[in-house]
Amino acid sequence: MRRLVIVSNRVGDPECEVTGGLTVCILDGLRERGGMWFGWNGEIVDPEDGIGVSCTRCGNVILVTMPLTEEDYQEYYLGFCNGALWPVHHYRLDLARFTQENSDAYRRVNERFAEALAPLLTRDDIIWVHDYHLIPLAAALWARGARNRIGFFLHIPFPSPDILMAMPEHEWLMNAITRYDVIGFQTKTDQANFCRFVCEHMGGEMVRGEVLRVAGNTLLAAVFPAGIDVDSFAAMAATPEAEERIEWLHRCGEARVNIIGVDRLDYTKGLPERLRSFKRLLELYPQNCKAVTLMQIAPPTREEVKAYADIRRELEALSGEINGQFGDFDWTPVRYVHRNVPRNTLAALFRGSQVGLVTPLRDGMNLVAKEYIAAQDKANPGVLVLSRFAGAAEDLEEALIVNPYDADDVAHAMQRAIEMPREERRARHAALLSRVRQHNAGNWMGSFLRALDAPAHPLAA
Ligand code: ADP
């Protein structure tokens, strides 16, 4: 089996307990076949102190990391990745900021990563690059003589061509991305948007199935929906400690029904819209007053970016407003928790909540939706209310699918979930669980690596 080299903006920490499902899955895959994980170590250093690589060995896995300088962090990470690529890919052109310094920094950091990685590669390695921080890495490695099979997985959405074209650097980025041998997307919509761009704006053509030919390169552009480790998440939700937590939640909670939302505090997650929908629920169905609580867990993220500070203020104001208008001595309608929570606590909270509310305005996949399903008690499961703009909605058809921009639609779906008879809940949950199992983390990784391991497409010659 060929050695696997994973490259991502942040390198997973094998020691870290709160590490999410995909990181654990990648680490397991690396341990199984042996390999290297290359990326940023999260440190920011003075350039005078040197920005060389550090290596740590964990069994048959080598973690190779590099720091960034303050300038890189501001311009590459916050500026270009999170200030331009992230909003454009999530259809938020209004929040995107484009500057030459930031796009130069993006090129610079990718070149530096390639410069450090290229000498560490052997001819037979297969390389799997992750996400929007590293789109030009394959081209930069090629320029340094690497002739390995290189794959790329985009964790976030791929926007429709007219959105992408608003980005000043889009032609250069699209030329760079087509240097990969395999490109993985979360959904059929993302893949179709990508293929449309290549065929309509770059003179490319679909030569067979998911194989594209463009500018002399042949590449596979396919869908690999990301998933979770269902059994381990389900097990976390059903331990005696989890049972205790759920009992505590019900004992100390003032309400009969708990609705839960768990999202990074990101403007793509539709949190203000969600609170407005909850407010509509209380207005349209006043019988829910003193009977229903929304627990929103939203840990801080990218706080240095202005749009994130704005969303935090808006959310705090909205939850205060709802609690002020509807709350009473014995009932707080919205419980807002602004911090990280251990994964086993999250699993218990999911299981103890009758409604899982996952209503992003746009999301690559949304693993919280899958975790909520995995955590449920099969005999008496809760109901998932899911945005049609989450990648997960392409697959999780038996959820109550809503338009997150339409507060009344979401409010009606919440009410339907609250009132849903047990038989219907069980039938929907069984169907959803089998879909979550089918597209689990192991299958995501396995199918991508099979595509990457396969010999180059015959048309590539
Ligand atoms: P994104 O990758 O955009 O943040 P996902 O829903 O795909 O969205 O993944 C989020 C992951 O982070 C999930 O595994 C979820 O359980 C975890 N997570 C979200 N909020 C918290 C929190 N407050 N504490 C701990 N983990 C969290």
Please describe what this structure looks like.
- The structure is a single chain.
- 44% of the residues lie in helices and 19% in strands.
- It is α/β, with parallel strands linked by helices and 461 residues long.
- The strands form two sheets. Strands 3-4-2-1-5-6-7-10-9-8 form a ten-stranded mixed sheet, sandwiched between helices.
- A hairpin with a 2-residue loop joins strand 3 and strand 4.
- The longest helix is centred in the last third of the chain and has 21 residues, at 306-326.
- The protein is globular, with a radius of gyration of 23 Å.
- Adenosine-5'-diphosphate is lined by residues 20-21, 262, 264, 297, 299, 340-341, 346, 365-368, 371.
Write the layout of secondary structure elements.
Elements (H helix, E strand, L loop, with lengths): L3 E7 L10 H13 L1 E11 L8 E5 L2 E9 H20 L10 H18 L8 E5 L6 H7 L5 E5 L7 H4 L5 H8 L4 E4 L2 H14 L3 E4 L2 E4 L2 E7 L6 H8 L2 H13 L4 E6 L8 H14 L7 E6 L8 H21 L7 E4 L5 H9 L3 E4 L8 H9 L7 E5 L12 E3 L4 H13 L2 H17 L2 H13 L8
The structure holds adenosine-5'-diphosphate.
